[in-house]
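Take a look at the protein record below and tell me what you see:
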Amino acid sequence: MRYDDLCDVNDPILSVITPSLNHAPFLRETIETIAAQTFRRFEHIVADGGSTDGTVEILKEYPHLRWISEKDRSVLDAYQKALSRVRGKYVIQCCVSDGFLSRAWFQRSVDLLDADPSLSLVWALPQYMTEQGELQGVSYSDYLVDAPPKREDFLPFWWANKLPFPEGNYCVRSNILRKHFPTEASRAHFQVHCHLGFMYHFMVQGYLSRFIPEVVNFGRTHSDQRGTRLWNIERPAQFEYFKEVDRHRRGVLGGDIAQVFRDGASNPIKTAGALDLKRMRRVYWQTRVFRSPLFRNSPFEIKRRVLRRLGALWRQRD
C-alpha cells in the first residue's frame, strides 16, 4: 500500500523506529496502525535483522518506509542502527506485533513536547492483545483514575515501583534518547535490557516526563515474543536494574548524590534541596505502602504475570 504523503516527508518532526526479526504475520498491522496516525510529518524506520520469513517482501510493499535488512548482533545493535538514521526531533518506538489504538497519539505527543521545553518525554498506557488480535486488560489501569505524581515527584515514585515507561508508546526528545540509550560499551545488564537502561539513565539524570491518562497502543502477546523467549536472560538483567535503582535512591536520600533536574535540552533546572529530599521520602513511602503491586494491578495483570513466571519455570525444567 502506498502512503504518498508520507513518501513526501523530507523534514520529519517525529521518527518511529521498529526493530524486526521474523515476525512477518504481524508486520502489516504494525505498519498500518502507524501510517494511520493523524499527524503526518513523521518517518518510519525499520531495522530488520535479516528476516527469512517474508518480512523483506512486505517492507517492499510500503515505499514510505526507511528500512534496512541485515544480520545484527543483538536487539541493541538493531536499535542503534535505527537511531543512527533518525532525523526527527522526537522518537517513538514500536516493535513488530505491536501498534496504536489512538490515531491522535503522535499529534498529542508532539503538541505536548513542543509546548513545554522543560519536558523530555510523554507517555500513556498500553493494552494487551492476544496473538489472535483480541484486546484484553489495560496495563496499570488504575493510573486512569489515580495518576502517578508529576515532574520531580515522579522520581521517588519510580524509586518505589521501578516502573519502566511503556516502550511501545513513550515519545521522547531524540537528543536525549541518543545520549542515554545503551550502547555496546554500557554495563552488560543494560545491553541485555536496553529499555531499562535508558529508563535508568533518563531518571537519574533528572529529566522530566508527563503521564497522559489515555490508552493509546496495544502490545501483543504471542508465542515467540522476546520477553518470553529470552526470559532467562532478561530476568537477571531486570534484577540488576532494580539494584541500580535502589542504590541511586540511597545515594540521593543519604546525601551522597546531588540530584539535579534537567530540561529537554539537558540544562539544569534545579538541584534538590533539604525540603525536596523530605518530600521525596514522603512520596517514596506513600508509593511503597499505597501503590504496592497487590493494590495496583488488575486481576488480569496479576494472572498474566503469574502464568508467565510459571511458564518460564516449566521451560527451565526442560
